[in-house]
Design goal:
Strand content: 25-35%
Number of strands: 10
CATH superfamily: 7,8-Dihydro-6-hydroxymethylpterin-pyrophosphokinase HPPK
CATH class: Alpha Beta
Largest sheet: 6 strands, antiparallel
Number of domains: 1
Distance between the termini: 33 Å
CATH architecture: 2-Layer Sandwich
């Protein structure tokens, strides 16, 4: 499987063959940036993700404290929902996302360290997947207010986590003592 990168066009998910057995209808992504022009980095990421399909929902942008214990600047975080226009296999989505991150200037460094852009696949249709390189739903959704708060803006109110069965509100309620994200602007 090749995902090609045309320097003028960037990574093209349309080049990923369809896989009807693993077709996500809606793909939810979490975005983060704490280096450079953070807001523009998030917007550039949304533009790349739009190559998967229609951007049907964008959360507000939140300022959040870094997570993971590495000293670094605060993040801007947001979530987006993409209605896929083609059938994409989850691992191929991950490959495309990693290419997007590189194209947008991400340099791999320490785990949970500062980065120009971070794009996480949070949910993909009704897919439940747990492999060494990819877990859908993202395993840390229940632990991160910087994901739960923006995701709660764009996901249906009656949504429940497909693994733990909890709502966004229930998961947020379990994170007492965590610093709440501060809404900054629209994406």
């Amino acid at each position: 499987m090749n995902i090609y990168t045309d320097p003028a066009q960037g990574t093209t998910p349309a080049s990923i063959p369809a896989s009807p057995a693993t077709t996500p209808t809606a793909i939810y992504f979490g975005l983060g940036s704490n280096l450079g022009n953070r807001l523009q980095n998030l917007r550039d990421a949304v533009n790349r993700l739009a190559t998967f399909g229609h951007v049907s929902a964008k959360s507000s942008v939140y300022s959040t404290e870094p997570w993971g214990g590495v000293p670094q600047p605060d993040y801007l975080n947001a979530c987006v929902k993409i209605e896929a226009t083609s059938n994409f296999e989850p691992h191929e989505i991950l490959k495309a996302v990693k290419n997007f991150e590189r194209e947008l200037g991400r340099v791999e460094s320490v785990r949970w360290g500062a980065r120009k852009i971070d794009i996480d696949i949070l949910l993909a249709g009704d897919v439940i997947l747990d492999t060494e390189e990819l877990a859908i739903p993202h395993v840390r959704i229940p632990e991160r207010l910087f994901v739960l708060v923006p995701l709660g803006e764009i996901i249906p109110e009656n949504w429940r986590h497909p693994v733990n069965g909890k709502s966004i509100r229930e998961m947020m309620g379990e994170l007492d003592g965590e610093a709440w994200p501060l809404r900054i602007t629209s994406l």
